[in-house]
């Protein structure tokens, strides 16, 4: 359990093969600080851990896990990152290096003064399975914010019930490269039209969304706050709907069955 103002777990220069398994990483009520901070060429596997109840105040970022830009290679498997709160950006996970999530749950995290309720990626990130649900941000990217320079791949994940005070309730891709296959993006909400499920900024050639067969995504039930869902709400950019662009390679519906 972390002291006030510090991270609960700091990993600095951990050698390849370092494993952390079965821990709960948290701060006591009223005690503030990051859950985990990983830097300095750490090669770490984190298995069946829960990072929860961490809070950053005073304009700080990254309440759950911060993976710094220091040649790190981090794998999280069967972990839960939940109910972490930032008074600025990034409630759950901030990745600035190399991160793989295998069957993880990212839920109930909040960014109350900036972007990225659940996850912000600015490095290389692969999400295999798992769920990103019930996260929120006062700005963009309720579930996931993929920033400039980010390379994000999402396979077979559920991204549902997230909310954004601006755009991209489920996913906001801001000039990053992004591949999304076999996912369900549903019942996310945003304040701005055309962007409640997935919002894309930058060249569409950077985005590979859907495909055929099992690679097709289901995108449904996403909505603008205060309105009923429309096709325009499911996937778009900051100007309008991209339904026509992606409807042939995704199952895009107004409501979910």
If you had to describe this structure to a student in words, what would you say it looks like?
This protein starts with 8 loop residues before the first strand and ends with a strand. The chain has one domain (9-253). The chain has 1 helix and 33 strands. By secondary structure, it is mainly β. It has one helix spanning 243-246; strands at 9-12, 18-21, 24-25, 36-39, 43-47, 50-52, 55-56, 65-67, 73-77, 80-82, 85-86, 93-95, 98-102, 105-107, 110-111, 119-121, 124-128, 131-133, 136-137, 144-146, 151-155, 158-160, 163-164, 171-174, 177-181, 184-186, 189-190, 198-201, 207-209, 217-220, 223-224, 235-236, 250-253. 2% of the residues lie in helices and 42% in strands. It is globular and about 45 Å long.
Number of helix segments? 1
| Beta-strand residue fraction | 35-45%
Overall structural class, as computed from helix and strand content, comes to: mainly beta
Number of beta-strand segments: 33
Major beta sheet, strand line-up: 1-4-8-12-16-20-24-28-32
**Shape, principal axes of CA atoms:** globular
| Main pleated-sheet profile | 9 strands, parallel
Low-confidence stretches: none
N/C terminus separation: 43 Å
- The level of helicity is under 10%
Number of spatially distinct domains: 1
What is the radius of gyration?
17 Å
Mean of the pLDDT scores? 94
């Amino acid at each position: 359990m972390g002291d006030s103002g510090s991270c609960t777990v700091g990993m600095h220069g951990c050698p390849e093969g370092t494993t952390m398994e079965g821990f709960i990483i948290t701060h006591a009520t009223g005690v503030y600080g990051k859950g985990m901070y990983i830097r300095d060429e750490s090669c770490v596997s984190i298995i069946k851990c829960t990072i929860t109840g961490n809070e950053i105040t005073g304009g700080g970022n990254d309440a759950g896990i911060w993976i710094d830009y220091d040649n790190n290679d981090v794998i999280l498997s069967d972990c839960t990152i939940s109910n972490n709160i930032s008074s600025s950006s990034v409630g759950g996970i901030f990745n600035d290096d190399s991160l793989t999530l295998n069957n993880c749950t990212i839920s109930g995290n909040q960014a109350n003064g900036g972007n990225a309720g659940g996850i912000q990626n600015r490095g290389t990130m692969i999400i295999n399975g798992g769920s990103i649900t019930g996260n929120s941000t006062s700005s963009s990217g309720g579930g996931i914010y993929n920033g400039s320079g980010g390379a994000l791949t999402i396979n077979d994940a559920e991204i549902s019930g997230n909310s954004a005070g601006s755009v991209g309730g489920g996913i906001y891709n801001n000039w990053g490269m992004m591949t999304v296959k076999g996912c369900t993006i549903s019942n996310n909400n945003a304040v701005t039209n055309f962007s409640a499920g997935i919002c894309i900024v930058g060249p569409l050639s950077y985005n590979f969304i859907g495909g055929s067969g099992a690679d097709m995504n289901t995108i449904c039930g996403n909505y603008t706050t205060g309105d009923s869902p429309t096709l325009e709400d499911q996937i778009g950019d900051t100007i309008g709907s991209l339904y026509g662009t992606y409807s042939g390679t995704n199952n895009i519906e107004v409501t979910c069955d």
